[in-house]
Amino acid sequence: MATVExxxxxxxxxxxxxxxxxxxxxxxxxxxNQNYDVGFDEEREVAKAVExxxxxxxxxxxxxxxxxxxxxxxxxxxxxxVAAQTELNIVVxxxxxxxxxxxxxxxxxxxxxxxxxxxxxxxxxILGTSNVRAGILKCATDVKGVMPGVEKVxxxxxxxxxxxxxxxxxxxxxxxxxxxxxxxxxxxxxxDLSRVVIGHSGDSFDFDYLEQLxxxxxxxxxxxxxxxxxIKFDQRIEVxxxxxxxxxxxxxxLSHDTSCYIDQMAPALVAKLNARGWNYTHISNDVxxxxxxxxxxxxxxxxxxxxxxAKVLTRTAGY
Length: 319
Ligand SMILES: [Zn+2]
Fold this sequence. Notes:
The chain is α/β, with parallel strands linked by helices. The protein contains twelve helices and twelve strands. Helix 3 crosses helix 4 and helix 5 packs across helix 6. The radius of gyration is 18 Å and the shape is globular.
């Protein structure tokens, strides 16, 4: 039976259930945190995260994909501690998150040596854990576009994908149509684009752009529900409703892109955003009812929350 790797070890595809495909648990800069007291208390934050994960499970979600990779403060032993104390499955990622330069460790190395590290996470297990493995690859392209460092990461991710058969999920700036450039590089690397989730596509209502991504076969991440930037709640809902109407329900996944702890904004701002809907239970409490009210069927919601994530996360053979 097919299995998916999680921070608690492999689970069956069926056990994934309702899955949020783009979330984070802790976003904390390790070097800043080691050198300054920025208010990250390990024990307190782990305990809070366990509470959040349990609330999410109680709200009907069974799994999240934590796309926190190098560049965002990935530390999987901490995720494994959380995972050990909740029934919610946490799929962890490998990859690099940068909008321009690569981490300087990789500065003089080629994409293949970066891909080598990703493959270790996927096939040998992640350092400091008792054999937790990565279930997905992550990379990013933002407003600046395919900077040389970004291109190196995209190619490294593509090559690790082809070697291992685990899927790819991306960050994009949707406004500048960055997903199309990602697809082009993946195409050059021989990637099957149906194994790719183009993230933050739900930030856009440029249907021409979205339909180009869909025509190439990729999944769209409608994955920033609760964040009223750059578009608002009603618009985010409307894009999903319209794409369902146009027959693309089989190519969308849902998520919030939220976190239990994030050090990239002032705590007061994070608290305000969380209170306004940017939290883990917003899809369960607000998004699903709004979609149903606008004519999306329960079947279609199950497709986006259960069937599509299972399809994406099922590991294929390398090629
Ligand atoms: Zn994210």
